[in-house]
Design a protein that fits this description.
The chain has about 280 residues and is α/β, with parallel strands linked by helices. The protein is built from 11 helices and 11 strands. Strand 10 (about 240) and strand 11 (about 245) form a beta hairpin. It is globular, with a radius of gyration of 18 Å. The relative contact order is 0.16.
Length: about 280
């Protein structure tokens, strides 16, 4: 029995509300159908959901996709792997006492952490906030062992991971799953970030299922990349803070580390030099 408790939720789950949004529900049913064509495994299908940058809605997409599977009678597990900024619990109103970190550190058993039937057929492994040595938690064998342990209990296991410009976790975890879904917010992410995301996943040998375009304005109007970037830049600062102070930059190691470090340096220049002006044009 899990120690985590249900509380009033905030994040919108379209299959878990009194007044269902038919248009959005149908959109997720379409995603469910298309992904079933890509992988028809009856048990133990595992998927990573990620995005390029913060604010693209990948947790909402992952949560609603999980809910769409559950209402179709598929036993589903949603694992919040975004330990730096846990969000998967909010839509289902969970008061998290123990999270994924407890399992990876061998401080708890799965039955103490898994929240069963947040809606019928949908279980969740939530996450607690942690900002130190997070990636290192995924480099060991603990998550692989956990997935193998839970494999036969679920039709589908979904891993909600951080954006790839924030952390390389999605690339690392891609080796444990059948495929990766990248959520792309319409007119928010730049071509440069998308290429970086694809390069990271390709280097990791990930099986890329495809891209889910999110936040498309129903009027067809464009809000412009620059305004969105200006509003979302604060997300980056929050991700890279540790104890209220900027994190000390360490020399990157390996292909992923060097690629991520190079991208971060180039991204910062967009707000301090000519790249910022070029983006506005």
């Amino acid at each position: 029995m899990s120690n985590n408790q249900k509380m009033p939720g905030a994040r919108k789950i379209f299959f878990n509300s009194v007044e269902q949004n038919t248009e959005m529900s149908e959109a997720f049913r379409t995603i469910r159908t298309n992904l079933s064509f890509l992988n028809s495994k009856e048990h133990g299908r595992k998927m990573v959901f990620t995005s390029s940058i913060p604010g693209e809605g990948k947790t909402s997409v992952a949560s609603n996709y999980a809910a769409s599977l559950a209402i179709a009678g598929r036993k589903t597990l949603l694992i919040d792997c975004d330990i730096r900024r846990p969000r998967a619990n909010t839509g289902f109103g969970l008061d998290v006492q123990k999270g994924l970190d407890s399992l990876l550190k061998k401080e708890a058993r799965p039955e103490e952490v898994i929240v069963e039937d947040v809606i019928p057929n949908l279980d969740i492994i939530p996450a607690r906030y942690l900002n130190e040595n997070v990636t290192e938690l995924f480099l060991g064998d603990e998550l692989s062992e956990l997935l193998n342990q839970l494999d036969g209990k679920y039709n589908t296991i979904i891993l909600d991971t951080p954006p790839l410009t924030v952390a390389s976790d999605a690339a690392i975890l891609s080796k444990y799953v059948d495929g990766v879904v990248v959520v792309v917010a319409y007119d928010l992410v730049a071509e440069k970030e998308l290429k970086f995301t694809k390069e990271m996943l390709t280097n990791a040998g990930a099986h890329l299922y495809g891209f889910v375009v999110n936040r498309v304005d129903s009027t067809g109007l464009s809000y412009g990349n620059y305004g969105y970037y200006n509003n979302n830049y604060s997300y980056y600062k929050e991700y890279y803070k540790e104890g209220g102070m900027p994190k000390t930059k360490k020399e990157p190691k390996g292909k992923f580390g060097k690629l991520l470090s190079r991208f971060k340096d180039e991204y910062k220049q967009q707000f301090t030099g000519d790249l910022k002006e070029r983006r506005k044009k």
